[in-house]
Every structure is written in structure tokens, then in C-alpha cells.
Amino acid sequence: MSDKEASVIKVDEYIIRVDRLYTKDHEWVLIEKDKGTRVGITDYAQKSLHEIVYVEMPKVGSTVKQMETLGTVESIKAVSEVFAPLSGKIIEVNEKLVSTPELINESPYDEGWIAVIEPSALDEEIKNLLTHKEYGKLISDIIRKERE
Hints:
Shape: globular
Structural class: alpha+beta
Distance between the termini: 34 Å
Number of domains: 1
Strand order of the largest sheet: 3-4-5-11-10-7
Largest sheet: 6 strands, antiparallel
């Protein structure tokens, strides 16, 4: 098994990265040493939205609060809010998404990230996020309910 394979779990058809934390609303956050926290939407979220055609991103320098709107993702199916997994200052946005929003569908955990937040209350707010195992259970529960 390669490192890449070992760093993910699959729940049904959905990939969940083990190196991230998650929200109940299907955002992920990757804590990067000395770089802030990279944020995006999960594989489950992008597959639920289908073909993503537009991403409204926050402005660099703006501040966000945990679980308040960070931006929106628009697909041929729906418009969905993206919530900030952590409070802080936006220090970078993924400019590639302006011309190629489908990167979120193609690579939700790598090329399709949305923003980098410099967290203002990381130690406190991290307690409100889900581990990969907790998020996997949430996805399992959602799938089970959909099939009932």
C-alpha cells in the first residue's frame, strides 16, 4: 500500500483524507506548519454538488469567523455556502478556481482548495472540528439514511 493510499479512508464511494479535520457541513481544513490552515470542501460535498461552474472566494485580508460563510460554490445543480472551519484572516485564495472551478471536482483535497486562513483561535476552535474517523461516521450515517 502506498503512502497516498494509506493516508485516506473510503466510505462507500467517498474519499476522506486522514491528515485533515472536518466540519459537519463538509468542509476540510489542513493545518500547515507556519503557513496557516488550508481550507476546501470534501469529496462528499463536491460529488453532491456535481459539476462545479463557479466559486465565490473570500477577499485576501478579510476576516472570517468559525462556521460563518467563507464563500459559495455554484454547480449546475445548486449554489452552496462554504463555511469557515476556523476563525481568522484570509491570507491566500486559490486563484486557479477563477478560470477552472472544476478543479474542486477533479481534486477536492489538493488542487481544488479554496483559501488559506491564518487562524486566530486555533487551539480553542479545533475542538469543534471532526477527526477523519468522526467525519467518516457522519458520512456513513448520511448514506444509511439516504438508503432507508
